[in-house]
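Re: Re: token formats

Sure, here are both.
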Amino acid sequence: MASRLLFTPITDFPVPVEKFPKPHQRVPCFTFALAPPTSYSSKSISSSRRGSPPPPPPLNAVKEELIQSPSSERTHDSKTSPSSSSKLVLVAGGSGGVGQLVVASLLNRNIKSRLLVRDPEKAISLFGKQDEETLQVIKGDTWNPEDLDPSIFEGVTHVICCTGTTAFPSKRWDGDNTPERVDWEGVRNLVSALPSSLKRIVLVSSIGVTKFSELPWSIMNLFGVLKFKRMGEDFLRNSGLPFTIIRPGRLTDGPYTSYDLNTLLKATAGQRRAVLIGQGDKLVGEASRIVVAEACIQALDMEFTEGKAYEINSVEGEGPGSDPQKWQELFKAAQAQ
């Protein structure tokens, strides 16, 4: 069953603009896709922009509008947890529609991040140049085992996997980026390469993965996307690693086409800010990419979500924002029903 909790309206969720340069290049972006890499390399990112601090956001505001005005000071939403300084989060698919929102939120929280992406230049165009201690960008593709060198995972404490591709044949399948390659082989390769010391991996999957042979899910699964996502989930479950699975409904609010976070993250979910979280693959509906990204980050530190899968929808109403307590209530309520 699903649970619904309504909170303060989504209004402001400022990310220090100093972390991102002015728009300078248009690079297409979309959710989840990865393509074959040609080599392994890492790039660092550094900040360069300063400005006046913005007015403080309303209490418990949702981070639906991540960037508002230049600031070098933390706001209520950018406060880190006591363990944030010791975190190093690897984001697979960090330049996709959900992944780029995950990365922006991690930067806002001053959590060190490492991105595994097929196109480092695209990542730099999105996130600007940050100090290597803050953000590292590594070229690689999860469905190519040779790209997953052990050095990539040195020091990594948490992983958020946002990789994926389209359910039906499209240009995103170019380079053999099919559901089998990305959602099954890629997840299997990534999970197999992760160190046993990992504290948590959060995998973004999909609603309907347990019912892919039933209508209407069988239509979406014509080319195997739900079946292969379920195979990836099962492999993770059997890996022995601490995990949480997030199964969003049909993704909305993107993929964005602003190509730069200064404008990209000003997008909102409109009136659909409230969050429904359920278990048992019973939810049917849509999910804002912004909400999904926040759910992934919140789940990293919730011990009671370990070893569990949650479905997530966005509905009309006011949302939990980045408030950990409200997200805990949502996740716990889903388990209680």
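Second one below.
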Amino acid sequence: MTTAPRSAAGSVDDTLGKVYDVCVDADGFALGGNDATSYFDCDAPLPGNPEFEVRHGGARYVFADADRMAKFAANPDAFAPAFGGFCAKAVSENDVFWVNPNTYIIQDGRLLMFFNDEANINTKAMWEDSNLAWGDGSHPDGGSMEERLAEADRHWKAGPPSVKQVGGGRQPKAQA
């Protein structure tokens, strides 16, 4: 199962020279190998089993069992993470960050993923704080989660941002 990439260019990993339209690990797994359907109906994501795999949108999705795999395969866009699985907060500010697959929310029926280095930065907490100024300077007085989601949608539909975040290190990239 495949879908067209959102643009000709995606997130660039300089060390490998690869371009990503979706946030995947070195083996091409989305969500760190977690079961995409479990984000919607479990308290924590379930680990996927490579025996139950669906390829969608340039990523490998694995599932805890055959029933969950069939559920995803019937409607992958309902379960695949928004914004290619990249950090929703970063996308709302026209940036791209890799994510922690255990840092997420379901907002308006969509799976939103977030960067969280578990020491200094938790972009999910920033997303939820309506008083926090946006990192791109566009909303110095903060903004609601709904405003952030609308901005993320606007940026994602417009194409790739000009700055990429890969593997935890900020790497400015010129657009080709």
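The helical segments are 38-41, 66-74, 76-79, 88-92, 123-128, 145-158. The beta strands are 11-13, 18-20, 49-56, 59-63, 100-107, 110-114, 163-166, 169-172.
- S.
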